[in-house]
Specification:
With about 625 residues, this protein is mainly α. It has 31 helices and no strands. The N and C termini lie far apart (about 65 Å).
Length: about 625
């Protein structure tokens, strides 16, 4: 048995990693999961899969968040088809991908270290707390899935026949993995440099020219990918969204290196919003970070002169995989999960360093202590991802100066306010006020905080104050869809409170403006239908409700509105047959709402059954 296990260390690594991360299955959807998974209609039908490869808009329910990641979306669609749309099912797949990656790191380490140290490398990768985000956060599957495709491609390259294999035959073996990686996330553009690096790591088997020829088809696929994302508009839109000067980006990049190095060595204070500010000028901090980069490069160069390649191999691996995401025009310049693929190189390099310890007991004791500590930290970090409130409370405690963390904490408390209104509303208000106090460079963060404060005033019963805040907000940010939807809701509530036709007209105007900006907002269609129903335009109201149902087929509130419309039509109908038909429709909608978890839908079913019984209908 022991001999069998020693022959398959990758399997042991995968099982241990899966067990340590098993707590992730108790987690939930978080921030970007809302538009990318929960509200994304394109992943609800397998027949939509071909559209992923031509339409970046399929990536999200919000058109402005379009990205070209067709393989990732395919995994979402198949995931949902096989296991349903509960968070645990998506997190389970994330966990399995991560365990597979740890197994691949184990086998990739074998050219440099023994079987034992290979297992240590796999466990270092699998148990490092940096990996908790790609496991616990569904949308971070993009990082683990692209890593899987890249590591598998590197494994196939490392185990090909080095000399006797034809260039064409060897490259064809690598193309599927390289193409899948590129179609998962743009960071896979590093695949060609990594393959050339692996050629160099093998030793002088091929010349530089032969290495380039051997990977020419992979380079060609990478160029074709760039042409595709340029043609479908994804790359031009991304470049146009560049909001930071290049001088600031390069200074920040040097500063980020020190942050990433500290995170890898001392993985504490992890956060989806790290305590990291943009470097706008040359300071002592940025100068020190740049000096560190230069010093490490000088040391590696000195080692290379003595034919010690390992530091260069693993250092270049880290650089090749970090550079694309560091230079991309992203709102978040530093993100801990970007270390996921570089972590593979660091894990193998660390295992190689451990193997240099001469005494076996010291070597194994050092590895056991380090891995145990990492496992404990990973279990603790996974617990933080259990809910939005715990996640963003931890993020704020780690980095109170980051406005996005404050904003998301406010959103989490606002969403939880139904259970304990006073405590959560107060906490949400404090978080939103903190956003304003931090004066973020991104105006939309302040706008979102103002929107949240208006919702809090509405929840507290201060309708006039909420409306005033929302009117001011849409004047300042006329393209902010959420503010227009909430302004429409405020006017609709005013109409229900007796403010009359003027309030309904204002509500309709706000909803129409929201739909001009974002036709896919089901809440706007739903509440616009409610306004139409109040004004007696029942057929138009049903049309709006049906559109909302197409956009959000799982939302129980849509079913309740349709049920209410059917009940109204039943009351207005003088024809018995039509009345019974409307009541049956109402019952079907109430049942649908109950199946989707609406609290009072069962009462609606009973009310319809009583009405049908009064008419002598079963």
């Amino acid at each position: 048995m022991i001999r069998t296990l020693s022959r398959y260390p990758w399997a042991i690594v995968a099982v241990v990693v899966a067990l340590v991360h098993a707590g992730a299955l108790r987690g939930d959807f978080h921030y970007d999961d809302d538009h990318g998974v929960v509200r994304n209609l394109s992943i609800r039908d397998l027949s939509m899969i071909p559209s992923y490869f031509v339409d970046p808009g399929a990536f999200s329910a919000d058109l402005e968040r379009a990205m070209y990641r067709p393989v990732l979306l395919t995994t979402y669609a198949v995931n949902r088809f096989l296991f349903g749309d509960e968070p645990w099912s998506f997190l389970l797949v994330n966990l399995l991908i991560h365990a597979a990656n740890a197994a691949l790191v184990t086998v990739l380490a074998r050219p440099w270290v023994s079987t034992y140290e290979g297992g240590v490398a796999g466990l270092l990768f699998g148990l490092h707390p940096v990996a908790t985000e790609p496991v616990n956060y569904v949308s971070a599957r993009s990082d683990s899935l692209v890593a899987f495709c890249l590591l598998l491609t590197l494994y196939m390259a490392a185990h090909s026949e080095r000399v006797r294999a034809t260039v064409r035959g060897e490259t064809l073996r690598l193309l599927p993995g390289a193409a899948a990686a590129l179609l998962t996330k743009a960071t896979a553009i590093a695949i060609a440099p990594l393959l050339v690096l692996m050629e160099w790591a093998r030793g002088p088997v091929r010349s530089v020219r032969q290495s380039l020829l051997a990977n020419a088809m992979v380079v060609g696929v990478s160029c074709l990918y760039l042409l595709v994302i340029w043609a479908n508009g994804f790359l031009p839109r991304s470049l146009a969204s560049q909001a930071t000067a290049w001088s600031e980006r390069w200074l920040t990049l040097g500063k980020a290196f020190a942050h990433y190095l500290r995170t890898l060595v001392i993985p504490i204070d992890l956060s989806p919003e790290p305590a990291f500010l943009l470097a706008t000028n040359v300071s002592v901090t940025t100068a020190g970070c740049l000096a560190l980069v230069v010093s490490l490069g000088a040391v590696a160069f000195g080692l290379l002169r003595h034919n010690i390649r390992a530091p260069w191999i693993f250092g270049l691996w880290v650089c090749f995989t970090l550079l694309p995401v560091s230079l991309a025009p992203l709102n978040v310049l530093v993100n801990d999960r970007r270390l996921y693929l570089p972590l593979a190189a660091v894990a193998i390099g660390t295992a190689l360093a451990i193997s240099l310890v001469r005494r076996p007991y010291w070597r194994r004791g050092l590895a056991a202590c380090g891995l145990t500590l990492l496992a404990i930290m990973t279990v603790q970090r996974s617990a933080v991802w259990a809910s939005d409130i715990s996640l963003w409370s931890d993020a704020v405690s780690t980095a109170p100066m980051m406005p996005r963390a404050q904003l998301y904490l406010g959103d989490a408390h606002l969403a939880a306010a139904a259970g304990s209104p006073h405590a959560h509303l107060s906490a949400a208000a404090q978080a939103y006020e903190n956003v304003h106090a931090l004066a973020p460079r991104q105006r939309m963060l302040s706008a979102q905080a103002a929107n949240g404060l208006a919702l809090i005033e509405s929840a507290r019963g201060n309708a006039l104050q909420a409306r005033s805040m929302l009117n001011k907000l849409v004047a300042q940010e006329p393209t902010y869809t959420d503010a227009w939807v909430n302004l429409g809701n405020a006017w609709y509530a005013a109409a229900l409170d007796g403010e009359g036709q003027a309030a309904l007209t204002s509500a309709m105007a706000a909803y129409d403006r929201a739909l001009d900006l974002h036709p896919g907002r089901y809440e706007a269609h739903l509440n616009r239908g409610a306004v139409l129903q109040l004004t007696g335009r029942l057929d138009e109201a049903e049309g709006s409700y049906r559109t909302a149902m197409e956009l959000a087929p799982e939302a129980p509130q849509v079913m309740m509105f349709l049920a209410g419309l059917s009940m109204l039509r039943a009351r207005l109908s003088s024809d018995v047959t039509l009345r019974v038909g409307h009541l049956r429709s109402a019952r079907a909608f109430f049942v649908g709402a109950a199946d989707r978890g609406h609290a009072v839908a069962r009462g609606g079913v009973r009310a319809v059954d009583d009405s049908l019984a009064a008419w002598g209908v079963e």
